[in-house]
Amino acid sequence: MATLLHIDSSVFPHGASASRSVTDAFRRTWEEQHPQGTVIYRDLSTHPVPHLTADAHLAGFSDPATHTPEQAAAFAARVALIEELEGADAVLIGAPMYNFAIPSTLKAWLDNVMLAGRTFMAEESKIKGIPVTVVASRGGSYAPGTPREDYEYVQNYLRAVLADSLGLELDFIVPELTMAPQNPAMAELVPLYEASRERALEDAETKAKAVAERLAA
């Protein structure tokens, strides 16, 4: 049966996070389609992975036989994350926008799994073509034509990393205006937020079913 790697990075817990509510909807649908399948879950907020260190970085470009004990330990941690990704049939990532970018915990995970010669810049990468769905929630709107269009760094960055560099098959779900219910200055945008939220939840179910059906074929 198929394996889903589910990664959340919101600093807010379940029930208070826009991205988590949508990844939860995707996961529930996935589990309905694959009751005998496997879900590997990583909450990068409560259990962050180490940020990339000099030892971990340099070890990726040198012969393991030459590694210091520190390099060997750091590299082993990277390899564990890479093997987890390589063993997945599909990937689900919650990527809320914080200060115009992704959470640093998610960046740390990406830095660890991006290994030249294995996951990118590699002729026989095991992860190439794996479908990945990213829930890119944001407090405002950065869609084309909006005043903050030029500040959209989350989707652009993740497209460069996940699709262009790692070769994953990337799809986005984008819940917008999530701050509208809490910010009085955005009160008139609450109906748009609610519509965006409902659309995102529907997209999560639709996309989860599509990926599940594709893998079952």
UniProtKB/TrEMBL annotation:
N-terminal signal peptide: none
Catalytic reaction equation(s): 2 a quinone + NADH + H(+) = 2 a 1,4-benzosemiquinone + NAD(+); N,N-dimethyl-1,4-phenylenediamine + anthranilate + 2 NAD(+) = 2-(4-dimethylaminophenyl)diazenylbenzoate + 2 NADH + 2 H(+)
Keyword Iron part of the UniProt annotation: no
Keyword NAD: yes
Annotated binding of FMN, by residue: 10, 17-19, 97-100, 137-140
Keyword tags: Flavoprotein, FMN, NAD, Oxidoreductase
Transmembrane segments: none
Domain Flavodoxin-like fold: 3-163
Enzyme Commission number, as recorded: 1.6.5.-, 1.7.1.17
Cofactor: record remark: Binds 1 FMN per subunit.
Cofactors demanded by this protein: FMN
Quaternary structure and interacting proteins, as annotated: Homodimer.
Homology family: Belongs to the azoreductase type 1 family.
Protein's name in the database: FMN dependent NADH:quinone oxidoreductase
Biological classification of the source: Bacteria, Bacillati, Actinomycetota, Actinomycetes, Kitasatosporales
